[in-house]
Amino acid sequence: MKKWSSAFTSLAISYISIVLVIVLLLCSVFYIYFSSHYKEELRSRNQLILKNTAGTIEASVLQRVQQIYLEVSLKQTATLRLLAGASFQSNLSKVSSLQDMLQAEVASNSDIIQAVHLYSPGQQVMLSSLYGLKYNADQETGAAFWMDWINGMDKSPLNSLWTEARWVPEDISSSVPGGNGSHLITYAHSYPFQSSGADSDLIIAIDVKESAIRAIMQNMMPPQYQSTFISGPSGSMMASSDQDSTAHEAEYAPSIARALTSPDDTGSFSENINDTSYVISYQTLPSAGWKIFSAAPASLFYERWSVVQQLILGICLFALLLGIGLSGILAKANYSPIKRLLGTIRDFTGSAPEQAMNEFKVIDSAFIRLNDKVSSLEDTLQASTPHIKQNLILNLLQNSTASEPMAVDQEFLGISLEHTHFCCLLLNTREAYTHMSSTHIQAAMARITSQLEEIRLPGTRIIAEELPDKRIIGIVCAREASGALVEQISQLMVSEGRQQFQMEVQLSQGRWVSAMADLHISYTEAQTLMKYAYFLPETVILKDRSLLERESNLDEIPQPALLKFKDKLQARKLDEIAAALEQLITPMREDRFPADYCHFILANTVFVYSDYLKSIRYKHPVHGHMDLYNEYIALSNILHFREWLLHSITAFISETEKRNSDRALSTIETAKQYIESHLSEDLSLDAVSSKVFISPKYLSKLFKEELGVTYTDYITGRRMERAKLLIANNNMSIDQIACTVGYGTTAYFIKRFKEMYGCTPGNYLRTVNEVQPLQAETSF
Asked: Where is the HTH araC/xylS-type domain (predicted)?
């Protein structure tokens, strides 16, 4: 084989060519990008830093200040309204309490705020965490330090404002010049919340330390960004990263004006300041409407340009060398499979390929011969068609078929391309397995599927297949979606199922879909509808789409209805047990509860019954300990469940009544009557057993065996039932009710009541009071 005509040489040359082209493009892109957009890096980075700084100021200062306003307005709502009225002077103790709260709020947020003030425009009274209570606040000493926000709110149609930064001395009443103080920005907000400043009953003002904002800017902005400051809507400087906030105010005034007139909330632009090129970036603080600015010299980027050029050249050289090396490795790696394939072909054919022949031509010749051999396997595949068909249908229903071979799948299934709409019909035949042998069931399944596929309707094709879950799926393929067509085929499937299985069957209808790839959607819908066949056994064809809405319903059966069955079971009154069971079953059949939730409730009911039988040590005289759960899951529908459960409970009650002696029943009844008549007295086991003339131990055993509850639980239950009646009558206090039902302390009575009913007596009384008017309205 010639060296230069081999596949390895072709691969190596092609890879190296690709590497050269990529490296040239890489050099060109790098050079064009960095030469044309050299300022973008500085602007983007500066904008990102500025955005993070603005976000930190927004979250750490501005939003915290607004949160402080909400805390003040919500904590002392009643006192705030009192301060806004003329009667506050008669409630100075509450005003003092309000000032303490303001001082506590300032103390907990001392890192950002100086003071909190409350001003009543109607009374001209101000309550301050720092200055105390001031009458005629607009004429007081130091009024100049708060008249800016008072006058601003008095004329404002909005409900809040931020003042400009101002110098406030520590001692506002001192006339001596100089002294310590701080720059403050005040946030004022009306009270109530939605009122405008001019219409507010009260103004809540919070003095914010300018130093808190400055500290954030100093911490987050790099030192090379020489000036960072915040400007208000009027152009005045609110805060700066420098101590002297006015030093550069005149220099940056044109830049500030340009940014303030911009409609964008964020941006950057180049500006010459004192013959030096700067990049000015700005970001809007939405809470206050301020803009934060930063100025960075453009020369910061030029210094790195030569370094970037060298870096680009180094990257390109490294990419070229790496590409050439990888080209050799890839060529060798891709040639290895070809070499192995040639060895395999030589092993199968038993002859070596010609030396002058290219490897690809050798492979092409081998595949031609292989194609001839594959054609001989078609007869074998024909025998496997039923199994392949079943797997293909299962893949379609489970959405595990790739989209590309869909046309081949339709041809294999005998579906014409004119069939553009598909619908799944699911026939439930699982009940047949309980009374038919497996041989008869398989024969019946085969007859149904074959007869369904033989149905010929204009423009329609039906594909039927047995599913692993003992059901039959019918796929209707039609030219257009037709409800009448689905109904006709559904009736045919039900009729055929009755004839073959000699029993009632149920069928569910999925929706029409316009592509075979979406057939799983129709199948899933049919499966979901079939879940409700258990609860609607009288419905032969399940097609009500409202049943699908039940799957997303989160409602639950009321807890009292669930507990009622347990209570009536312990009482062993069959009529009441049947009524309680009907109260569970009827909502499952008629209301909007999901099928899985209903099955959970039914299983829980079976477990309650089973646990009760275990608690009283009941053993069936013939079957011994019964496996109730397995009996339950073998039932085909909810009507059979009701019949089975009532029959089991009836047999249990009958059997237990036989084993109970007259003396035991009489003793229990006497004890229950005595307990009912003396709920407020001593009902200890010793006291009651002496009244019925038996030992305490035997009385406790009778309660456990005959009633299924302990003696103590029975006493507690009766006392709580009496307490519920007394609470519902609403004629006695909680203390009186606790005493009436035999509890020495009200606190213990409330505790036991909450443990049993999940709420306190007071909450239960409010619930009763809310329900009674609603019932009265319903009755009308």
From this structure: 669-767
